[in-house]
Write a structure and sequence with these properties.
Layout lengths: L3 E6 L6 H14 L8 E6 L5 H8 L4 E5 L16 H6 L4 E4 L2 H5 L5 H13 L3 E6 L3 H5 L3 H12 L12 E4 L14 H19 L8 E3 L8 H5 L6 E4 L6 H11 L3
Parallel strand pairs: 1-2, 1-8, 2-3, 3-4, 4-5, 5-6, 6-7, 7-8
Helix pairs in contact: 1-2, 1-10, 7-8
Length: 255
């Protein structure tokens, strides 16, 4: 059976208390849920991680962080390391979200160091890639995706590939001003990313989960999942309510 991933990034919205309510409601819905083919995850804010880690322990939902520094420790005020995250029960880290790239200036070279640090610590890196509207209009989306993948994954160890997840999130399609991307457009970009990953890693590149994100909602989600190289969804606003998260996740995937 094919494997899928489904998860949400809560950005800088939910407080620790909001996250606690979300998780308790979600776990209530998920009572008795078990699937070997669907990986669920949530990515709350840093201050909510400890509470989330406690609540999600032994649950079917993985806990992710929204960022991480590449160093094990050091003079990096305001940053967090893999070891600090692992202590809280974090097993995944989102790297290169468009807000990190475009608001905070993270480069592919920075992300490469973070990806390698995550995999060294056995944390699943969820690398986000995606073109801006200007890059799409100039017809260089696939070139841009190839660059982000090749630079971000430079020297990525083959033995860590089972940990890697990638989310394609066109910058123009995400968030409150996002315009949903046509499903056939997304399918082509995922095919291009798969070709690049196969070029980089051979057949193992064919098994790296490729998630799609950007204004996904219950009506457009099934269309995205018909593409052969879309292995899951990475959802923002439409999954911030626990019942909607549960409904979207479980209605979309064959369990
Ligand atoms: C995002 O910002 O990464 C995202 C997918 O958000 P939304 O689903 O709200 O567009």
């Amino acid at each position: 059976m094919r494997n899928y991933c489904f998860g949400t990034n809560m950005k800088m919205y939910k407080t620790r208390r909001d996250t606690e309510i979300f998780i308790k409601t979600l776990l209530d819905q998920l009572k008795g849920f078990h699937s070997d083919s669907l990986e669920l995850f949530i990515i709350p804010s840093f201050p909510a991680l400890e509470t989330a880690g406690r609540l999600l322990k032994d649950s079917p939902v993985l806990l992710g962080a929204q960022n991480m520094h590449w160093a094990d420790e050091g003079q990096f005020s305001g940053e967090v390391s893999a070891r600090m995250l692992k202590e809280l029960g974090v097993s995944m880290v989102m790297l290169g979200h468009s807000e990190r790239r475009h608001i905070f200036g993270e480069t592919d070279a920075d992300l490469n160091k973070k990806l390698l640090a995550a995999v060294r610590s056995s944390i699943c890196p969820l690398l986000c890639v995606g073109e801006t509207k200007e890059e799409k209009d100039a017809g260089v989306s696939d070139e841009l995706l190839r660059m982000q993948l090749k630079q971000g994954l430079f020297q990525f160890p083959k033995e860590g590939l089972h940990l890697l997840r990638i989310a394609y999130e066109p910058v123009w399609a995400i968030g409150v001003s996002g315009v949903p991307a046509p499903a056939d457009y997304v399918a082509k970009r995922h095919d291009a990313m798969r070709a690049c990953l196969t070029e980089l890693f051979g057949t193992e590149g064919g098994a790296i989960p490729l998630l799609f994100g950007g204004s996904v909602n219950p009506s457009n989600a099934p269309g995205y999942l018909t593409a052969p190289n879309v292995d899951g969804l990475f959802v923002g606003r439409s999954a911030w309510d626990a019942e909607n998260y549960y409904k979207l996740a479980t209605s979309l995937f064959p369990l």
